[in-house]
Amino acid sequence: MKRKLRVGGVICCVVLVALYVAFGRSKNKRTPPPAITPEVGVVQVQQKDVPIYSEWIGTLDGMVNAEIKAQVSGYLLRTDYTEGSFVNRGALLFEIDPRPFQAAVDQARGEVAKAQGQLAQANSQLSQAKAQVVQAEANQRKTQLQTS
């Protein structure tokens, strides 16, 4: 038991000495640096005109502005006007690649031709059906005449 008390006492002393050394040294390191006195320049006051200017961001707007809206979408091949120049109503301003539109027209013409072919075929079948009806009616009359 005495031995435990001695060991505990020694450990406490070692811990206290270590804490004293650690806190004692850290206080010495925390001394503030000496205050630096700022240098101040002195100038004679003069009266003179100073230009006043400001920088602004803005957008210029003309007296007459035209809003250009595309009626179709596509790739621009060229522009036929000069920026800032006057243009007249109906004047060509842009040229759009016509190939996709020509392809759509050709496809529509093909579908119209196909529909016309189907219509002609249906008219032909209708004519054949009418002829068959006339022939059937003629055969029916003939049969009625022969049996009566």
Structure explained in plain terms:
The structure is a single chain. The chain is mainly alpha-helical. It contains two helices and two strands, in the order H-E-E-H. The chain has helices at about 1-30, 100-145, and strands spanning about 75-80, 95. The chain has a two-stranded antiparallel ribbon with strand order 1-2. The longest helix is centred in the last third of the chain and has 49 residues, at about 100-145. The radius of gyration is 53 Å and the shape is elongated. It starts with a helix and ends with a helix. The model has no long low-confidence stretch (mean pLDDT about 85).
Number of helices: 2
Number of strands: 2
Q: Percent helix among the residues?
A: 40-55%
Quaternary organization: single chain
Q: Spans with pLDDT under 50 lasting ≥5 residues?
A: none
Average pLDDT, all residues: 86
* Strand line-up across the major sheet: 1-2
Main beta sheet: strand number and arrangement? 2 strands, antiparallel
Radius of gyration: 53 Å
Taking the alpha carbons of the first and last residues, their distance comes to: 150 Å
Overall spatial form: elongated
Structural class: mainly alpha
Strand content: under 5%
Order of helices and strands: HEEH
